[in-house]
Amino acid sequence: METSRPLTVGRIDYANVWPIFHYAEERLPTERFRIEKRVPAALNRALKQGEIDITSMSSFAYAEHADRYLLLPDLSVSAKGRVNSILLFLKKPLEDVLTGRIAMTATSATSVNLLKILMKLYYRAEPSYVTMEPSLDDMLAEADAALLIGDTAIHASWANKRKDRGLAVIDLGALWNSWTGYGMTFALVAVRKEVAERDPEAVTDVLRALTASKERSLRDLKPLVDKACAQLGGEPSYWDRYFRELHYNFGSDEQAGLSLYFDYAHQLGLLPHEVRMRFFEDHAALKVKNE
Q: Which UniProt keywords apply (predicted)?
């Protein structure tokens, strides 16, 4: 790979990651950095294939190839309880869903495997699964329940209330918290190791830009709330609560909850190996620390 080309930074194209990226681009000059917006599954593939250098990515996809990546410290999309955008919609009673069929979104591995963990270990159930494009009506035509994530899940939850469809809705973040006592981390920011080794200064610039964006966004949510209302609809009160109920740090509590998720995934054979999280250090000489 040519060292002269711009560093490519992937951005999950969902509102839940906006605080980390909203102000970052103004600190990352286009001659040195290029931002690409995609859904989580597409970013996961691009990082694995070397098409993207640094990206926000699903936690599960990070775990699958954790030996190849370093995490940018204290950046995540997490929830201590309900997440409001990782939702299971049920058209039948829960007891029927547990022995029935669930349609799963094709856009994020973390939520899909969280659902499988909760079904197997919490409910002691083994429903069948089908993967589909994220359309609630199409999914419920094929299955007893449907898992949606991100902005699609938010719009589906609004439509469910507006049309009085009567679908029961389970927030997987809230269910995980009530079961384990931990919050859940849905996305992280990772860099390919060879990129961090080759150009640690550029990676540091990205880390500082994302961190500054996170801090500025959380000091004043109004610009994000206004943007969400304009682009996605809904009321300011909804989006203010939405952003406040998410958490964007990745401290010891978030790491403990995610480690438990990884352990359960390994226990169930969803991950073939245990996961040790390694972090990029914010200085010129690259160091790796184990958590």
A: Lyase, Menaquinone biosynthesis
- Residue 54 sits at φ, ψ, to 5 deg, of -135, 140
Q: From edge to edge, which strands make up the β-sheet containing 101-105? A: 128-132, 101-105, 145-149, 86-90, 168-171
Distance CA(232)–CA(25), nearest Å, equals 21
Facing residues of 188 across strands?
Answer: 57, 76
Residue-wise pLDDT for 134-147, tens only, equals 999 999 999 999 99
Last residue of a domain, one of 156, 180, 204: 180
Residue 21 belongs to domain spanning: 7-80+184-290
**Contact assessment for residue 232 and residue 158, using Cβ atoms and an 8 Å cutoff:** no
User: Per-residue confidence at 41, pLDDT binned at 50, 70, 90?
Assistant: confident
How confident is the model over 51-74, as pLDDT tens digits?
A: 999 999 989 999 999 999 999 999
Q: What's the confidence (pLDDT) of residue 287?
A: 45
Q: Which of 126, 152, 180 is the last residue of a domain?
A: 180
> Contact at 8 Å (CB) between 161 and 133?
no
Would you say residue 92 has pLDDT above 50?
Answer: yes
Residues 58 and 199 in one domain: yes
